[in-house]
Design brief:
Helices cover about 30% and strands about 20% of the residues. By secondary structure, it is an alpha/beta fold. The strands form two sheets. The protein has a six-stranded mixed sheet with strand order 3-2-1-10-11-8. A five-stranded mixed sheet has the order 4-5-6-9-7, with helices on one face. The longest helix has 13 residues. The N and C termini lie far apart (about 35 Å). It binds zinc ion.
Length: about 250
């Protein structure tokens, strides 16, 4: 199966993840570009579902903060409060799993990527945990460091595709149309669990590793259910409010 589901920033939003897995249809694999936990109501269930589906994962800043407390001092108060709660909810085994996630993966060397010409990271290859890639200069810097032709990242919660050397203004990618991976590309599928591009639907992408295309998609999900779960579990109410705004 040549269809890979690209996910990033699921952020413990089980309702959104289940909707994406349903909407994506048959897939041959799942790659997750970090921030599986943090912010949302169901970190343990999200981790369990992704492990059951044998997702290939890298670490994000929230994953490390929840696992080890690392970087918590750099978080805003709302993010830090959620990360501390997640730390207390997860088992030692779950925290160890998050702590052991690699910062980057590469199809060159990493068996789960099956020799495919992609590297995975959360922020960027210059700074896998913390850099937000918001422009083509930053995207080029990551592609120069990649040992593979293409790279996938997350962290900004905004879906985008950059082509190396193409210094155009960033525009929102078209939905539901296969986009050819010509040249060298950096692909961010956007955030499944906490979109920040003004569209509250869960963001994801489908990679066709034979045709070498990526298709950006959105899945409707029961935002109100996720919001209620957030409030019921005692997380900061802002984390529920923002889901309806897509910000
Ligand atoms: Zn995130």
């Amino acid at each position: 199966m040549s269809r890979i589901l690209l996910l990033a920033d699921v952020h413990a939003n089980l309702v959104a993840l289940e909707a994406v897995l349903f909407a994506a249809g048959p897939i041959g694999g799942i790659w997750v570009m970090g921030d599986t936990v943090g912010y949302g109501p169901d970190p343990s269930d999200v981790l369990a579902l992704l492990r059951e589906r044998r997702a290939v994962m890298v670490a994000g800043n929230h994953d490390l903060a929840v696992a080890t407390g690392e970087g918590l001092d750099l978080f805003n108060p709302v993010a830090a409060a959620a990360a501390r709660l997640h730390r207390s909810w997860l088992s030692a085994e779950e925290r160890d799993l998050l702590a052991s996630l690699p910062l980057t993966r590469s199809g060159d060397t990493d068996a789960p990527l099956a020799g495919l010409p992609f590297s995975l990271c959360h922020g960027s290859l210059r700074d896998p945990i913390w850099e937000y890639v918001f422009n083509s200069v930053q995207a080029d810097a990551t592609l120069r460091l990649a040992t593979t032709k293409h790279c996938c990242n997350g962290h900004t919660h905004v879906p985008v595709i950059y082509r190396e050397g193409e210094h155009a203004a960033r525009t929102a990618p078209a939905l539901d149309v296969p986009i050819s991976l010509t040249g060298r590309c950096l692909v961010n599928p956007g955030s499944a669990g906490q979109p920040r591009d003004g569209d509250p639907r869960a963001a994801y992408a489908l990679l066709d590793t034979v045709g070498m295309t990526v298709t950006f998609r959105r899945a409707d999900y029961a935002v109100a259910t996720a919001q209620r779960r957030i409030r019921d579990r005692g997380l900061p109410p802002f984390l529920a409010d923002r889901l309806a705004l897509g910000y």
